[in-house]
Amino acid sequence: MAGRDLRTLFSTNDRSLDASEAFTNRQAQWDLVAAMLTEHLQTTAAPGFDVADFEAPRDNVLVFHGVGGIGKSTLSRKLEAALTTAEHRPAQWGAPSWTSARLLPVRIDLAQSAGTNFEQVILTLRLALAELGQPLPAFDVALRRYWEHNHPGEPLEEYLRRGALARFGRAMPQQMQSALSDVAQALLLPGTVGSAIGQVTGSLVQALRERRQTVRALAGCARLADLLEADPDIDALSFYPHLLAWEIAQIPVAKHPTLVVLLDTFEDVGDRTHRDFERLLQRVVWLMPNAVFLITGRSRLQWADPGLHGQLDFTGPTAWPGLAADRVPAARAASPAAVGGGRRQVLIGDFSAEDCEDYLARRLSRDDQPLIPPAIRQVITARSHGLPLYLDLAVMRYLEIRRAGQTPAPGDLDHDFPALIARTLSDLTPDERHVLRSVALLDAFDLRLAVHAAGLPHEAPVIRLIERPFVREDTFGLWPYNLHALIRSTLRSTDDHTDDRWSPNDWARAAARAFAALGEQWTTSPTRNRALLIGCLRQGLRLAREAHLELGWLAEAAWSYVSDSIWEPLAPPTDDRNAAALETPADALVETLSALARRQHEHRERTAARLTAVTDTGLLPAELQQMAVYYLAKAQRDLGRSEDSRRGMQLVADGGGRLAPAARRGLAHLARLAGDFPTALATARTLGWAGRHHRVEGDVWWPHGEMNRAADVYEAARTEAEQHGIAGERATSQAQRAFVLAFTDPDQAEDELELAHQLLSGLTLRATTLTTHTAELIRTAGTPGPAVEDRASVLRADIQTAGVTAAQTTLELALCFHHAVHDDEAAVRAAISRLHNLTEEGDYAYYVDIAHFMADLPLSADRASQTQWLDGEGSTRQRWRALVTGRRTRLSTAP
């Protein structure tokens, strides 16, 4: 059902415009209501059900809560309409199973703007029951007594006729008058009832105490006399709903009604310090177990919290088992079992993208066609994060632009709305608003982080805030709480025009507090685990960059990040930022770490360009500058720019910083690439663990065909990495061990490769992964058919995408081994030609030598080898030729 949107209609002169109050989906919530009502009707129809049982737990309330603007009031109105008549039920909502039941829905808006007080709540309930067409003597006598005592000279009939409750009709006063007349007649009282209500109640109490037959119809209400004897104040009035529940229970089963009370805007009944109104309303719910209460508000009900004992009459999980359960996530709210299992608190979820599109298409139309174009609807949907209030505000902005004589464009609706903040802040205390703005600077937070970010001396405002529906909870997250995405972005980017809005200096101080709090969590952590490191870096880097903060603890955290060689993504790549955009040390560090992480997914050319831009700025402090220079030199080495790489490595090695051992290792690698194996081996033996000495030795031994010796030192490298807890180095050493054993023992290599893949799980090491793929190809070298060549073609494409020259030359060497085993001289020479092209700058030129050794071919007379073998060319040739003949023998004897 779609109503008329008067606000929109009065915002334009275009009479051809159709403005409807579009209602979208909420099928899941309807299913929950239908399931609850079905269960409730079964419970109240059971033989043992008793409305006068004041000790039984209550399960007659269902709570829908969510952020301001999520559509709770709209849902409440639609539920009332759907429960009133089937024709008002939205088409997408299915027919319920209880169509024969008599439901009496009544919606009460508790918003402060509606001015609803507790008396009006009670009168509304009685007026709703007037549809039964019969007096309710127990309740009516008590209510008349209360009214005349508290409103002398103001007839109830007149109040109802001229007040906000006039919409319910005039049946109730006549029914009440009839009830009082019947009671007076039963008590044989003379005169008019209206002037003798005191006499009526006094006589009725006496008759009830004496159990007279004349009042036997009321004698079954055991608490009636007590209520009539109590002072007729507001506290007594809150117990009168028991009389309504009793009266309903006396109606024959065939005509038995079920009162469905929809209490909307429940957040306005008070706060957590002043619960007077909430206490009265809770009594109503408790004392009417045969009625259903559908409550909508911003916050969850706390009635199941035993800590509220004394503030409310009925508290704890025993009293309200359904309210004690965890809130039902929006994704699971479609399951009626969520209610049947006792879960009565449901978080109203955001609209899906499809729902947003449907809403915007139907909200404004002309000739049954959407007025807002698809491109603009797409922008609004993306910005809304599914919040209906944003959709509504965007529609009004669309009309506003049209009123100005302009044609709205997609960019005009890429817009923040201060009204979102005003709605969000409206029912928060000043301390809660302060915390909200502080945590808006964080992607996620916990209690301690929020307290420190806000700079508060106590936790209470944070505890209250995290219970709000716009704070989302992920129990498996490093920090469990995060703000609704739209509210967070709007808070940070829009001037909200509130009285306590923050100045730029306020935001800067809050960013500094949040940054310090993250650093404190990292530096004081007893474990300093990887997950905490990455979480702190991601948030800290962003804060430092946006607020132009000093690096502080980020420097040490950056070193911890690079030490494991795991390379989790830390920030979106800053491809759109050129060197001129790097203005602060934080900018430079973000770009450095992002480039290091992205190098596993980008061409090394891109990595080198990004790191060159960083080093040219000189923004980083000395040690971090060496980090950028070192990894730039590594990228240059991968690209075959050995001289540039050697200069960078030498600069870092001479600097004596943390990466000096790694830079010396880099120089050893460069010596090996040039074929200077004596220098490479001598340098390796001086590196120690910090320079990864075992792995560098292995890289020297395997080009000599010393595969078992290389495998042993790679194993030693893996063991050392395990002892130091360096996952990346462990995986790399294991991959190299599998690679060399693939030449000598394919069966053992298969096991070693399986271990390598296990160690690579969860890591992003592209070059190491390419090594394992090459090892798999070598392990199957010599097998007949095109499988090896096909696999090599796929791997060659992957290597070219990565831009790792070393991997490409190693792949061609592996193909030489395959063709040599087949004794296919033409294929060997073709592979050697490709190797010549790849190594013409001098690096890896000894691969060409090895390819000749494999195929037992003489070296080219026109190209003298510059390789300095450790024990001479002849010995190396023999070992490589032996590997080829050994593989041939293995294949020929295989079953």
Quick overview of this protein structure:
By secondary structure, the protein is mainly alpha-helical.
Descriptors:
about 900 residues; mainly alpha; Arc Repressor Mutant, subunit A; 5-stranded parallel β-sheet; 4-stranded antiparallel β-sheet; 42 helices; 11 strands; elongated
Characterise the protein shown here:
With 895 residues, the chain is mainly α. Among the domains are: 87 residues; 124 residues, no CATH class; 77 residues, Arc Repressor Mutant, subunit A; 118 residues, no CATH class; 87 residues; 116 residues. The protein contains 42 helices and 11 strands. The strands form 3 sheets. It has a 5-stranded parallel β-sheet, sandwiched between helices. Strands 1-2-8-9 form a 4-stranded antiparallel β-sheet. The protein has a two-stranded antiparallel sheet with strand order 10-11. Helix 41 packs across helix 42. About 3% of the residues have low confidence.
